[in-house]
Amino acid sequence: MTLKRNLFLAGAIVVGSAGLAQADMAATAINDLNVRAGPGPQYPSLGIATRGSQAILDGCIQASRWCRVDVNGVRGWVYAEYLQVQQGGNSVIVEQHQVDLGIPVVTYETTASVAPDPAPGDELLGPVGSVEAISPPETVTTYVQTNPAETVRLRGDVVVGAAVPDDVTFQEVPDYQYRYVRINDRPVLVDPATRRIVYVYN
Q1: CA-CA 20 to 30 A from 71: which of 20, 30, 50, 80?
Q2: 105-110 and 54-61: which strand pairing?
Q3: How far is it, in rounded angstroms, from Cα 106 to Cα 146?
């Protein structure tokens, strides 16, 4: 597994809820996902957990889709829809089963200044599906860099394979089959036929 390490000095405080001292739970990443410095797509990525990576899940924020994990020594926050655990011999998605799995509740407070999080009413990126990985040519990268689009705020983590809602408009890239859109301040390339993200610029 490849992990990109970045230092994040934010003055963050993570607090576990009292009375929930149970064993940490093993989870698996169902797709490549960002391990973030805080519970939201506006926080910087500390590294990438590749599909199939094992993570230690030690808690989730109550009524939130964000959970705290440790992946190969990197501790951070991931989107619960992209994690699965074993329950009764079956694989279940953490986001849908936080209560019945008995996952501890943790809280997060920060004194850092970060980009605004998408509001609760904002639309959600769709579930992650399998897509063919691409590597855009330099001409496309140059086009994206020199034609900044207005950002679209969506709930969820911006990862390859996530589905973009139908009402989000894509920008055409000259002489290229994929489209361009900026989601939560991150430029991405999207397959217009499936509306799935095929590449995320870091």
Answers
A1: 20
A2: parallel
A3: 41
Q: Is the pLDDT of residue 40 over 70?
A: yes
Give 104-154 pLDDT, tens digit per residue: 888 876 544 444 555 555 667 766 677 787 999 999 999 999 998 889 988
Question: How much is the mean pLDDT over the chain?
Answer: 78
Distance CA 123, CA 110 (A): 25
26: left (phi over 0), alpha (psi -120 to 50) or beta: beta
pTM of the predicted model as reported, rounded to 2 decimal places? 0.52
DSSP labels, 7-50: -----EEEEEPTT-----EEEEESS-EEEESSSSTTSPEEEEE-
DSSP helix/strand/coil, 67: strand
First to last CA, the chain: 18
